Structure formats: C-alpha cells, structure tokens
Amino acid sequence: MATPTLQVALDLLELDRAVEIAEEAVRGGADWIEAGTPLIKSEGMQAVRVLRERFPEHEIVADMKIADTGAVEVEMAAKSGADIICILADADDTVIAEAVRSARKYGVRIMADLINVDDPVTRSHELAKLGVDYINAHVGIDQQMIGRSSLALLRRLAGEVSIPIAVAGGLDAETASEAVAAGASIVIVGGNITKAADVTGAAQRIRNAIDRPEIRPREEESQEAVIRRLLEGVSAPNVTDAMHRKGAMADLISICGRVKAVGQAVTVRTLAGDWAKPVEAIDVAGPGDVLVISNEGRTDVAPWGELATHSARNRGIAGIVIDGAVRDVDDIREMKFPVFAKATVPNAGEPKGLGEINTEIVCCGQVVRPGDWIVADESGVVVVPRERAYEVARRAMEVKKTEERIREEIRRGRTLSEVAELLKWEKRR
C-alpha cells in the first residue's frame, strides 16, 4: 500500500450524525469509513448497511471487536456490507481462525486490534500466521488519558510483520504524519476529525500530513506543563463533566467577571477574617499557583483585599479562591485579577496569625490538598485531585472537542434535543 490510507472512525451513537460527518470527512480525503464500536452497539448492523449504501465506492470497516463466535459475527458484518471486520487480537486462536475462514468465504478482510495485548510483537507474528489481513496498533481512549501512546506501540511493531499495519489512538495531523513515517499503512483517526466543527478541513489537514510523512523533533514537555496547557484550554464546566460532575465548589462568584485561573493549590486555613496566614501564603506560593483560603464560610469579615491582591499579582500567583468574603472589590476589578469569593464585605479582620498554610482544607464543600489543581472561571471553581490531573485534563479536552461539533450542528439549525436524541436515550428505569 504505497499511498497511506486514511480511515475515519465514526465512534458516535447517532447514525444520522455519523453519516453526515462521514460525508464531510470523505470530502476532506478520508478513504475508509469505519462504523465504530459505539455506533454498532447503538444502531446494530443497520449502521453498516446504511454506510454501505451511502458510500458505495469506499471501503466500509466494521469495528466489531469480536471476542467469540468469530464466524457468525464476521458473517453478520459481511452480509451487511462491510469490507473489513475488526477482531480483538487477544481473542482465542480458535476464534481468530474461524473469523478468518468466514472472511475468506464471504470475500472480506480481517483487522486484528492489539488493544490491551501484553506482548504485541509476539501476538502479531501469531496473528499473521493465522491469516489476518491487517494488524491495528491501537491504544484505547481510556489508556490515552493516562499517557499511553499508539506511536510507541507502532514503533515496536514496525518491521516485525509483513502484513500492513494500521495505527489508531488519539492521532492528529502531526502524529499521523509521524505514524506513516514510522511504518503505518493505514491511519485511523476518530475524534480529531469527527469532533471538529469543520470536519472536512480537519480531514484535509490529516490527509495532507500523511501524504507527506515526516518525524519532527519535539521538545520534551513536563507533565506539569502539559496539565497546565490543557487545563488552560478548557472551561470549568468541561472539567467537571470530565470528572462525572464532581469537584465543583459551591456558592462562589467571580469578583472580576470574565477571568480565569489555573494552577496548583496552596491551601490556607484561617479564622474569623484573620488575614495573617492568607498574606503569608503569598510568599509561600510560586508563580502560577492558586491560593485557596478557608475562612470557615464566614461572610461578615474579609481575610482578603486590594493590597493582598496587588502583592499576589506581583508574585505571579494565578488566582485566589476564598470560602468567605473579599473587600476592596472596586480596586480588584480594576486589576482584572482572578478572585473568587462567596461575598463582598468592607470589614477586615486582624492579623493574629491563627490558622495553617499547606494543609488539607475544606473549601466551599470540596476537600482541597496542597498541589491539587484548580480551574476557575466565571462558571465556577473546580478542584482536580493532583494524582488524576493529567487524565482529567485530557478528558476535559475531549469534552471540549465534542461540544465544538455539537455547537456547529446547532448553528446549522438543529436543536440540542435533536442532536443528542434525548427521547431515544432517556433512562427507562
């Protein structure tokens, strides 16, 4: 396969949306069209039939992820119009062999998906002997969220087997180009095409990239830098969606309106407006940190004001979150500095030195530990546990991408209820 193949993975639940997106992707240069596993589970073999009918000149891939009854499931997909059928590489050899026999009978091909295989090189040799037509170096989305790479898996396989290798898992234009340079014959792209507002443009960019493959030198980026970059690119609602509606603080307002703060927490516990520890914490915090202050929820006295804000800004602190009140809001608003509080009040406390810095606190209903990540914007404040920050940041970006496509479909005239097919997916019990 001298020319790299671009396969678009339609991992959606709604067939009409999948067909519309596929049409746009084909206009951008997609070659093969995949009925993704979620689409097949949602719509059954009708998804394959409709794609076959709508795209008679294109290869249709059915991502069945077959684990058992290989012959039966291959027959189902083949008779529905699939040209290529995906089986799990870690299925038993008897299942693989039956799937291959069925594929030969119906004139279709088998792609073996290496997701979750412990020894992909050895298994790929075995699969080739069993007669599969393609090996898919696939890292699943949940694995991607914790940092596993399809490119790394591909590089382990390159040169090891003679049959064509596909690669799938979080690829964009840059990594798709690298994949072809590393030996991939088939590049499978899902969300970075299907979730784009401009699907045709996204597919065209990847098409252009894989037609001119290259491996580009990359600057190493620390995990902390990746987390910050991703969280700065999403909203607080995106983050809480990624955490299954968890992590949001209650009753906070953005004092300066449309501002944003992202950073790791430096926590402060104080009492009755005592502003000594909050001010001392400015010297403890580093650039990019967020001060999170527990004032026991009291709103009759403020542990924070304009002078402290000015000092924090000079220090490079990213923002302030207060379970309590703030004063001097007119001056703070002129600074446009991210301060989030429960209320405003002119009363200040006394600097008695009560409280602690960098200890676990409860702020507006959420436990916050030193080093937890804070994402705060006009919608509210979300706490991300430090040990899950990379994963949550990746998932939040996926939420944002999904919303971008939905927003585009609404712009074209559909309602949110129509896009989401709410009546179909309402919980029955």
Structure overview:
It is built from 19 helices and 20 strands. It has helices at residues 15-27, 37-43, 46-54, 70-80, 93-106, 120-130, 141-144, 150-157, 173-181, 191-194, 199-211, 223-232, 236-242, 276-284, 306-315, 329-335, 389-411, 416-420, 422-425; strands at 5-10, 32-35, 59-66, 84-88, 109-113, 134-138, 165-168, 186-189, 253-254, 261-269, 290-294, 319-323, 325-326, 339-341, 343-344, 356-357, 361-363, 366-368, 373-377, 380-384. It is elongated and about 85 Å long. 41% of the residues lie in helices and 20% in strands. It is an alpha/beta fold and 429 residues long. Strand 5 (109-113), helix 6 and strand 6 form a beta-alpha-beta unit. The protein has 2 domains: 5-211, TIM Barrel (Alpha-Beta Barrel); 226-390, Ribonuclease E inhibitor RraA/RraA-like (Glucose Oxidase, domain 1). The longest helix is centred in the C-terminal third of the chain and has 23 residues, at 389-411. Strands 1-2-3-4-5-6-7-8 form an 8-stranded parallel barrel, surrounded by 9 helices.
Please render the helix and strand layout as text:
Elements lengths: L4 E6 L4 H13 L4 E4 L1 H7 L2 H9 L4 E8 L3 H11 L3 E5 L4 H14 L2 E5 L6 H11 L3 E5 L2 H4 L5 H8 L7 E4 L4 H9 L4 E4 L1 H4 L4 H13 L11 H10 L3 H7 L10 E2 L6 E9 L6 H9 L5 E5 L11 H10 L3 E5 L1 E2 L2 H7 L3 E3 L1 E2 L11 E2 L3 E3 L2 E3 L4 E5 L2 E5 L4 H23 L4 H5 L1 H4 L4
Parallel strand pairs: 1-2, 1-8, 2-3, 3-4, 4-5, 5-6, 6-7, 7-8, 10-11, 11-12, 12-14, 13-15
Antiparallel strand pairs: 9-14, 10-16, 10-19, 17-18, 19-20
Helix pairs in contact: 1-11, 4-5, 9-11, 12-17, 13-17, 14-15
